[in-house]
Amino acid sequence: MKHIIPYGKQHITQGDIDSVVEALQADYLTQGPRILEFESNFAKYVGATYAVAVSNGTAALHLNALALGVEPGQKVITTPITFAASANCVRYCGGEVVFGDIDPDTYLLDSNSVRKILENDPNGNYVGIIPVDFAGRAVDLEVYRKLADEFGLWIIEDSCHSPGGYFVDSKGVRQHCGNGNFADLAIFSFHPVKHIASGEGGMITTNSEELYNKLLALRTHGIVKNDELYTNDPSFASASKDVDTYPAWYMEMQELGYNYRITDFQAALGNSQLKRADEGIEKRRAIATRYYNAFKSEKFIKSQSGVIEGHAYHLYVIEVDDRLGLYNYLREHGVFAQIHYIPCHLMPYYRNLGHKEGDYPKSEEYYRNCISLPMYPTLNEDEQEFVIGKIKEFYVS
């Protein structure tokens, strides 16, 4: 059987397995102490005040849009080069998605493109921006915060690709993805190919106590269990007259929420993986360095210049001619490279909303040439050299 090298892969250790088994043998399978522990540890890891664990990254995005009050008719800007959920969360709430083009050097949403969109809007219908830390490269949120403040917008940072990543602000300070210093909310994913794997799962981080409390309720059917937040009278709650305290069983559904909870055994796995998150990033950076050195002199490949400070390297993307030919050639030899992403605006759903080819030429040009090479901490040197060799072999044969 041919040895398969996927583009991404989880790394499960005996310690991870032991953590999950321990959680399965505990009193709580869900809504238990391991979730709070994971939230606390993750908030510390990224430098945020609050963290809310949820069932997946898409749920995190949806809850963010709900917490920020996205309504029909309101417009939100994001990038076409992302997984569809970054845009879909706005549509779940009835809002309108407007795409900005990318910077072809960084592959990130171009703030100049966003500014043009906002300046050409006489009615002020825009309410927010969802920049994406694509491939693990951190968006300069200091720039976006100034832009958002100028136009009265909120920011959701889609950090699914970048736990542990950072950008350097104008004062020379490292600003870690999800720390809440510039974005109102940030989201992360724990899908198996991500830095931290819990099977499925996601996390929201924020520094806003108000948004934190909203998210906690929306995650669990809109139900609140907090004496200070109840709106019904204590005597109604206890069904007894002249009572001024709430009974222990009482709870209130105050708005329409969802069941977007994560389980304790997923949180246990996430907690275990979090302990070696920095080690994983260092391994990713070593892989990125080897790819860069292998291809920097090759005319047939375009890759970003050097190994970028603060880049979390969820993906290592190159641009090539005859991308389809290379993709098929690699697959023939057991290398399952991937394409990230088909531009959102050209998905049939968004085409049916009026988007078309030619709307975002830089994003479309990127898509015609991009290919993501295998990138995960357990990718060994021999496997990486095999990938490099097959790419070079394709272009010289």
CATH class of the largest domain, named Alpha Beta
Q: Which fold does the CATH topology of the largest domain refer to?
A: Aspartate Aminotransferase, domain 2
Helix content: 25-40%
Low-confidence stretches: none
- How much of the sequence is in beta strands? 5-15%
State Rg: 23 Å
What's the count of strands?
16
Q: What's the number of domains?
A: 3
CATH architecture of the largest domain: 3-Layer(aba) Sandwich
Q: Output the CATH homologous superfamily of the largest domain.
A: Type I PLP-dependent aspartate aminotransferase-like (Major domain)
Instruction: Look at the structure and give the mean pLDDT.
Output: 97
Oligomer: single chain
How can the largest sheet be summarized? Answer: 7 strands, mixed
Secondary-structure element string = EHHEHEHEHEHEEEEEHEHEHHEEHEHHEH
N-to-C CA distance:
25 Å
Output the structural class: alpha/beta
**Number of H- or I-type helical stretches:** 14
Give, in spatial order, the strands making up the sheet with the most strands: 2-10-9-6-5-3-4
* Shape estimate: globular
How is this structure best described in words?
- This protein is an alpha/beta fold and 397 residues long.
- It has three domains: 9-223 and 255-276, Type I PLP-dependent aspartate aminotransferase-like (Major domain) (Aspartate Aminotransferase, domain 2); 224-253, no CATH class; 278-396, Aspartate Aminotransferase, domain 1 (Alpha-Beta Complex), CATH 3.90.1150.10.
- The protein has helices at residues 14-24, 33-46, 57-67, 85-92, 111-119, 141-151, 209-219, 234-238, 264-274, 277-295, 323-332, 348-351, 361-369, 381-396, and strands spanning 5-6, 50-54, 75-78, 96-99, 126-130, 154-158, 166-168, 174-176, 185-189, 202-206, 223-224, 252-253, 301-303, 316-320, 335-336, 370-373.
- It has a seven-stranded mixed sheet with strand order 2-10-9-6-5-3-4, with helices on both faces.
- Helix 4 links the parallel strand 3 and strand 4.
- The longest helix is centred in the C-terminal third of the chain and has 19 residues, at 277-295.
- The two termini are 25 Å apart.
